[in-house]
Amino acid sequence: MKSLYLDYNATTPVDPAVYQVMAPYFVEHFGNSVSSLHEFGWKADQAVETARQQVAHLLGCRPQEIFFTSGATESNNWVIRGLMDHWRKTEPQFKPHVLSSPVEHSSVIQTLNWAQRAGLLDVTFVPVDSSGKVQVEEVKKNLRPETKLMSFMWVNNELGTFNPLQELGKLAHERQIYLHTDATQAIGKTKVDLSEFPVDLLSFSGHKIYGPKGVGILYRRSKNPSVQLEPLLYGGGHERGQRSGTVNVPAVVGMGAACEIVAQRWAQDVEKMMGLKKQLYADLKGHFPGLRLNGSQDLEASACNTLNLTFTQQQLPGQIPGLAVSRGSACHSGSTTSSQVLKAIGIPEREAQNTLRISMGRDQTWEDLSRVAPLLKACLR
Question: Going by DSSP bridges, is the β-strand pair 147-151/329-332 parallel, antiparallel, or unpaired?
Fold first, then answer.
């Protein structure tokens, strides 16, 4: 029997409807989107701008606030390094302070650590609570007069925990601080409407929302406030001079189509997946009484598709035949290390090795998920 894939927070398959929309742009409509002297370029440029409108519609923002990148990693790097370069250009003697958390994506943490080692920024990683959530009061305690940026993810990729973006955004705007959020795990799992949320910069990837790999989004607010970034990449002046490099038209078209599908169905997907998550947790708890839920203890207060579970009475093997999930520890060069997220919420190394992240997909059924407990029992037996 085919292995059961439950690692959708790592990557999703391309939706067949998205693939169908992309296909002509590999062979038939193959023009460069900046080739302005012939119809092949016009066709490609029109497709890119249509995709920009589709993304903007999903996010509740203006199309000119959307920039295409290679993924959330590039977008996160661009936010930090682009702001840093802008501050150095406009206030060369000023050393800005940034607030973030220890449970962010590595593309945020590692970039901030690099900038701090280089003496370009001061960074404070605000501790999170036992569910992995950033507490607004902790953020307030760590504010300084020179704080210029907060970077907190919308939904945690390992725990499914939601951060209080409304409150963080309000605090940031009161202090004239930019708020950036990596929303990679939020798109399609909650309402992301930037006309309602005071977010200034937002990143996400196509391959987490049933779009293609190799394409991402950076949203940059254009007024109240107008966010200024220096380019991360220089060259031909693509993306209105802000992000050089030939536009990956098929992937951009796929991103637009994926966002259009999310806009149409996210609410029904959330309801369905939340029901399946509750059913799966109850089933697993019945089979494994010592099972511990990590993150929010209220299933409805975390991402609809994510369960992070520690088996306190069993020893998990290195691999679980027939089940594709993410582990709470990872093996690098022969040594096993706990994830930074589990460390941040106080889970020791031994327990991290017995922790699984189960992340479901929007088209899965209970017939699929009912296989999880038997697969685990067979493995543990």
Answer: unpaired
Please report the pLDDT score of residue 352 as a whole number. 93
Residue 154 shares a structural domain with residue 39: yes
Domain total in the chain: 2
Active site members: 331
Does residue 285 share a domain with residue 191? no
Query: Model confidence at 335, in pLDDT bands (50, 70, 90)?
Result: very low
pLDDT beyond 50 at 333: no
Picking from 261, 290, 321, the residue at the C-terminal end of a domain is 261
Residue 169 pLDDT > 70: yes
Contact 354, 292 (CB under 8 A): no
Cβ contacts of residue 295 below 8 Å, gap of 6+?
Answer: 131, 132, 156, 159, 160, 161, 302, 306, 308, 345
Of the candidates 103, 97, 144, the residue with the CA atom closest to the CA atom of residue 123: 97
Query: CA nearest 69: which of 61, 78, 60?
Result: 78
Which CATH number belongs to the domain containing residue 314 in this structure? 3.90.1150.10
Asked if residue 256 and residue 345 are part of one domain, the reply reads: no
- Nearest CA among 251, 246, 242, 185 for reference residue 214: 251
Q: Are 101 and 155 in contact (CB under 8 A)?
A: no
Mean pLDDT along residues 333-359: 85
- Token pair recorded at residue 296: 């929010």
**Cα dist. 200→62, 82, 218 in Å?**
13, 14, 10
- Evaluate if residue 332 carries a pLDDT over 70: no
CATH number at residue 181: 3.40.640.10
Q: How far is CA 225 from CA 75, 173, 206, in A?
A: 19, 9, 27
